[in-house]
Amino acid sequence: MYSCQQVLVGKNPDLIAILTFLCEQSHKLTNMGIYYGRQLYFKSHKTLGKFDAGIGL
């Protein structure tokens, strides 16, 4: 399972901009993985497991 920990960041705008960018890209990458997994399932009725990276794509 995933867990999170709250970390308070000071008012450094450069650091906040970098962290925002990294969080947005991470979210996009997660969504892309979910999208490709669903497309694989819809086209071939196969599912990807934890160690099946790159199979069928």
Structure explained in plain terms:
- With 57 residues, the chain is an all-alpha fold.
- Helix content is 56%, strand content 0%.
Q: Based on Cα principal axes, name the global outline.
A: elongated
Profile the largest sheet: none
Query: Nearest-angstrom radius of gyration?
Result: 17 Å
How many helices? The count is 1
Order of helices and strands: H
Overall strand count: 0
Distance between the termini: 26 Å
Question: How would you summarize the topology of this molecule?
Answer:
Blueprint: H1 13-44
Concise description?
With 57 residues, the protein is mainly alpha-helical. It is built from 1 helix and no strands.
Task: Quickly list its features.
mainly alpha
